């Protein structure tokens, strides 16, 4: 590889890491500066660099920006309406007594598809506490399973913003990525549960005294210990907390109910509609398109034109249309009729604010990718990788891993990896779905002090220091490692 182009690539990635870690600039500005540095070092004309940045930014947001905005809107309504909690309770009933870690891991995976991990964990954690209080043990196991279940889909399944951005940058089919991400989630969930069940009991005694009291109640001197876990005395020592998790929502949150109105409650089936309907429509579009292309003999070709029977599915299964349908369902099915319009609009404004930085980072990632293409760095990197025994699809995986460890954000890590490797997808013959999975899986590694979600999970679990690293950093690294053989299989099937 030409030394100048190699230096441009290295300095570009180093710029992102240094600026995020050592300055007060955020990832959005860091990615733009990295694009400028890459283009300048690669010898690209200054005005061409600016043109590449604006073109890449615009093209990326054109394909994915609307979808991210709609996705976070659905997540916000699921949160405030109580639908997320209703889904969680349904999973607990489905899995049955004694399988609570499996239930909470699955709950976390489902809820985190439309809801950001941080807020989703805050919403669902009281459920884990209530179960542990009734069982009088096992809170750390449940907290780890819930948190890492959320990590799986947050990193791997659109319409979570990170995977959506990766799909847009790499040109991966969204429906196919949803299916592939769900398959990875199902296969990695046992890793989550087994690690949580192995490590959780070891860390139970490391839980802070204040959190132990919050979860289990007041622990009196001489309280019984089972397996190293102090058992709480709950108001008379019956060992059963009569306050089971409630599905009712505080009416004050939803507005002023009419006189005599019952507490608002959303059933699990209704709660799932705004999430499942868009996903099913997008997947139907992907499947029907694949069948139609096969019938026409143009699989993977640019000349494909949908047949008349496939056009309706292509329309309603377009991610923009599908998620608009999801938003309408969320507003008119999950919320009571007496919820004021101003409140709903305020929730959407909050969702837009939370998505704003993600949109900017996504666009800046597309800008960096365009600079890499137009400057020739991407082609040079592709040629260099082609001459090594390293499987090409591991390149985005390793880049995402390094960036995640360096700066903490999984979203920034996967977007950076997608931006750097986007020029390689065509030239090296990497399937876009495999490349996208590699970016998202690599970004799960070793969540620790520089990751905000690390602090959310460990503070709610009452863990600190080495115990926090063993619990949370360990479980995220376990699913990262578990994804490596799955990537080899995916490449063998799709590559």
Description:
- This protein has 21 helices and 2 strands.
- With 495 residues, it is mainly α.
- α3 packs parallel to α14 (319-334) and α4 packs across α12.
- The two termini are 25 Å apart.
Poorly predicted runs = 219-247
The total of helices stands at 21
Question: How do the SSEs run, as a string of H and E?
Answer: HHHHHHHHHHEEHHHHHHHHHHH
Largest sheet: 2 strands, antiparallel
Q: What's the shape?
A: globular
From the alpha carbons, calculate the radius of gyration and give it in angstroms: 24 Å
**How are the strands ordered across the major sheet?**
1-2
How many beta-strand elements?
Answer: 2
Decide which structural class fits the backbone. Answer: mainly alpha
Distance between the termini: 25 Å
Per DSSP, what share of the residues sits in E-state strands of 2 or more residues? under 5%
Give the helix level as a range of percent: over 70%
Average of per-residue pLDDT values: 83
């Amino acid at each position: 590889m030409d030394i100048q182009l190699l230096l441009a690539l290295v300095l570009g990635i180093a710029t992102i890491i240094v600026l995020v870690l050592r300055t007060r600039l955020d990832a959005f500005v860091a990615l733009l500066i990295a694009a400028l540095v890459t283009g300048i070092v690669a010898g690209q004309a200054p005005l061409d660099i600016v043109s590449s940045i604006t073109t890449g930014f615009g093209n990326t947001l054109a394909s994915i920006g609307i979808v991210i905005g709609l996705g976070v809107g659905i997540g916000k309504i699921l949160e405030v309406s109580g639908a997320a909690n209703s889904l969680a309770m349904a999973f607990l009933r489905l899995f049955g007594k004694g399988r609570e870690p499996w239930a909470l891991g699955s709950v976390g995976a489902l809820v985190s598809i439309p809801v950001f991990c941080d807020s989703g964990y805050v919403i669902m954690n009281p459920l884990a506490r209530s179960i542990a209080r009734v069982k009088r043990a096992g809170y750390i196991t449940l907290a780890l399973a819930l948190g890492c279940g959320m990590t799986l889909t947050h990193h791997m399944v659109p319409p979570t913003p990170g995977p959506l951005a990766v799909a847009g940058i790499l040109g991966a089919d969204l429906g196919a990525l949803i299916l592939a991400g769900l398959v990875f989630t199902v296969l990695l969930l046992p890793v989550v549960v087994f690690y949580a069940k192995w490590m959780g009991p070891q860390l139970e005694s490391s839980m802070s005294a204040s959190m132990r009291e919050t979860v289990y109640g007041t622990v009196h001197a001489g309280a019984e210990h089972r397996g190293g876990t102090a058992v709480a005395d709950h108001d008379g020592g019956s060992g059963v907390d009569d306050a089971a998790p409630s599905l009712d929502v505080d009416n004050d949150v939803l507005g002023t109910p009419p006189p005599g109105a019952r507490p608002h409650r959303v059933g699990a089936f209704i709660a799932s509609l705004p999430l499942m309907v868009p996903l099913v429509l997008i997947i139907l579009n992907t499947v029907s398109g694949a069948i139609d292309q096969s019938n026409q003999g143009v699989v993977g070709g640019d000349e494909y034109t949908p047949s008349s029977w496939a056009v309706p599915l292509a329309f309603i299964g377009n991610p923009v249309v599908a998620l608009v349908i999801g938003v309408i369902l969320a507003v008119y099915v999950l919320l009571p009729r007496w919820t004021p319009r101003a409140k709903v609009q305020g929730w959407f404004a909050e969702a837009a604010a939370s998505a704003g930085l993600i949109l900017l980072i996504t666009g800046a990632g597309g800008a960096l990718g365009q600079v890499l293409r137009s400057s020739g760095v991407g082609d040079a990197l592709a040629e260099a990788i082609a001459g090594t025994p390293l499987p090409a699809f591991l390149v985005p995986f390793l880049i995402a891993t390094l960036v995640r460890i360096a700066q903490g954000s999984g979203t920034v890590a996967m977007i950076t990896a997608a931006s750097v490797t986007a020029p390689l997808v065509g030239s090296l013959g990497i399937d876009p779905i495999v490349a996208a999975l590699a970016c998202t899986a690599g970004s799960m590694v070793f969540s620790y002090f520089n990751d905000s979600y690390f602090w959310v999970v460990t503070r709610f679990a009452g863990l600190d220091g080495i115990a926090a690293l063993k619990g949370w950093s360990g479980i995220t690294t376990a699913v990262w490692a578990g994804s490596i053989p799955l990537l080899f299989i995916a490449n063998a099937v799709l590559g």
